[in-house]
Design brief:
about 10% helix, 2 domains, Immunoglobulin-like, mainly beta, 8 strands, five-stranded antiparallel sheet
Length: about 170
């Protein structure tokens, strides 16, 4: 959770969050517009599940409907960096219009501001992709990650995956 500098607003935000959570454990968490990356009218509420520690930060990126832009440097429509929390992190991104998008997230546990890869170019930090379709080797495709965002607030949940945590992974 991002804590605001103003103590009064911070306490009010925490009280609102607790009210929402205690009222219904299954209810979606509404992110206030001022905590949403960007100012466009179409918003997507993003929940990242499966975060293994509160170290570092969670970086969320959204790409538009051009497959060649997916995962390409400098082609993100929006990005959002939030403090990591053990378990779940909630964020919000605003978009220029309803349409087809693809989301990615990574857990920057080492705090270097980059998605760390190993010698073979495989992820060394936790990552998530919309639709959760991550190939065993290589990068996910735009087609496998594409989601439809409506012209009203939408919600998406990404599940963080860590290297070596797959049942198919071979660990020494």
């Amino acid at each position: 959770m991002v804590i605001e500098k103003s103590r009064g607003r911070g306490i009010a935000s925490i009280a609102l969050l607790l009210t929402l959570v205690l009222a219904s454990p299954d209810a979606a968490i509404a992110i206030p517009a001022e905590r949403c990356s960007g100012t466009d009218a179409v918003r997507i509420q993003v929940t990242i599940e499966g975060i293994r520690s509160a170290k570092g930060s969670i970086s969320i990126a959204i790409y538009g409907d051009q497959p060649q832009d997916f995962l390409a440097k400098g082609k993100k429509l929006r990005k959002l960096r939030l403090p990591a929390e053990n378990g779940i992190v909630h964020g919000c991104l605003s978009l220029p219009r309803a349409g087809i998008y693809a989301l990615t997230a990574y857990h920057d546990e080492d705090g270097d501001g980059h998605f760390t890869k190993n010698f073979f170019g495989l992820p060394a930090e936790g990552f998530a992709v919309s639709n959760g379709k991550v190939p065993l080797l290589g990068m996910p495709s735009f087609e496998s990650a594409a989601i439809t965002v409506a012209d009203t607030d939408s919600e998406v949940t990404l599940k963080m995956q860590y290297p070596g945590s797959s049942p198919l992974a071979i660990t020494p």
